[in-house]
Amino acid sequence: MDAEKSLLSMQADRRRWTGLAVLGVATLLTHVLAFSGLDWAWPRHEAMAASAPAVQVRVIDAAPAAAVPVVDETRVPSPVVTPPPVRIAAERPRPPRPALPAAPVITLMAEARESPEVAAIQVASAIPVVAMAPETSTGVEVIPHYRTQMPPALMLRYVMQRGALRGSGELSWRPDGNHYELRLEGRVAGLSVLTQISQGAFDAAGVAPLRFTDQRLRRGTKAANFQRAAGKITFSGPTTEFPLRDGTQDRLSWMVQLGAIVAAEPTLRGVGAKVVMNVVGANGDASVWAFDCTAIEPVATGMGSVNALKFVREPREPYDTQVQVWIDPAQHYLPVRAMQRSGTGDEVFELRLQSVEANP
Fold first, then answer.
1. CA count, 13 A, side-chain hemisphere, 293
2. What average pLDDT score do residues 246-251 get?
3. pLDDT band for position 319 (50/70/90)?
């Protein structure tokens, strides 16, 4: 009798531990899949537009994420995520960009008495802002030609968050002569859920991408190719093509280009300044991103509080991308905080700086 009770107790313990193991695996998968849908590269809700074509999906059984001992031999199928349909955005026609005079050079006397980083913020707010992005009579924005000052090679580490889920992000910037590589890697529980890479060169307009790739967990890699000899932008999936205009950025390189422009243009370091650029994603989308400087405010980081310039890009249509980015003069005007969302129902994706180090 005692042996029978002992056997029943052991079986009950095995069932209980099996249930806890299955619950742990399911929880990990939920976190990873949530971050694998991060939409830092293109709008999350493009599928809700009326022009979106349907995407056919074939569902197959996936192998279990981990071997879990199951007493009753019941199989737990892996969850299946259905990717959203994709809308190919058509670029609005724009007139040829008129030639603009070179931006004026302003010498800040206060910088001789204080550190360049502090003087840049304190003095910039008193400098009249030059209208760098006028509009034509047709209402189409002109993309100006900005000067740029590139940051040195750096590794920036962030806390990455979307809703209640948290992970880590690393932004690696490696300029090498006339070429560069910029990489953003996002991880959750040690798993890579987001990898974006921008590779290219430098030209008179600043960062000049040649190829941008975007890879998510459980999804294939998408790419945008900047064919400079042919003067066009093509994509690995959609057959859409866009003309390649000077200063056009991808959905990762804009983070460096914005800071490089502000670093070189003292007139753009105050509230009311505006920076405009064309931005292209890997999913066949292209649009004008106009960043307005709305505030100079403190940002809490892993290295303490810093005073940063806040630039905001407002959406121009439903489910368009909204961006808020805080750039720090002490970190070569690179982002110490960035937030993005696509539509009012989308959860905010945020990066907050924890540390910075040289990137040899």
1. 28
2. 97
3. confident
In DSSP terms, 208 is beta-bridged to 201
- Split into its structural domains, the chain has a count of 1
Q: Is residue 290 part of a domain?
A: yes
At residue 340 the predicted structure's pLDDT band, cuts being 50, 70 and 90, is very high
Query: From CA 307, how far away is CA 329, in angstroms rounded?
Result: 8
Both tokens assigned to 245:
């205009």
d(CA 309, CA 280): 24
How far is 32 from 289, CA to CA, in rounded Å? 30
> Which of helix, strand or coil describes residue 122?
helix
- How many Å from the N-terminal Cα to the C-terminal Cα in the chain? 70
Tokens of 57: 């999906």
The Cα–Cα gap between 171 and 356 comes to: 10
Instruction: Report the CATH number at residue 121.
Output: 2.40.360
Average predicted confidence (pLDDT) for the chain:
76
